[in-house]
Design brief:
This protein is mainly alpha-helical. It has helices spanning about 35-45, 75-95, 100-105, 110-125, 130-135, 140-145, 150-160, and strands at about 5-10, 15-20, 25-30. It has a three-stranded antiparallel sheet with strand order 1-2-3. It is found in: Cytoplasm.
Amino acid sequence: MGGFFKRRDRDGRERWWLAITGKGNKERVLPATAELMVELARYRQHYDLPALPYLHEPTPLLLPIGGLHRPMTRGGVHLIVKQVFENAIDHLTSTGEPRERAAERLRQASAHWLRHTAGSHMMDGQVDLRYVRDNLGHASISTTSQYLHADDDDRHRATESGLKLNW
């Protein structure tokens, strides 16, 4: 939790940020949205912690189920993510045939899939490509360009409706 900190923006408003260490032991700073901070406060209060973290707080960001204040392992996070996907698959398959395709997609899901989904949602939400690159920690904008699905979809629809040959 000690990676959270506040910084004033140009308008004087305090904004939350999160410093993390990612792949290649590289540190980067991510925007912590107001929505995230509300959910973090709920999570922390569940564990009888103050609503907001403080700089250099030693409490781990992910606490193991059971409430012990020690870091959750990478394997533990993986198991929880896989269980959430399994629960969603069970729900989808219980609703019948129309949902089988979605269930099949979820069977291939992983924690990295969530990262890709976040990148795609940022792009669909018109977040500047440079910001998505920085948030995902990509060295190259060309790596981030793989998340441009919405633009391709819009381009395809526009081309199809605007380029009719009427054969």
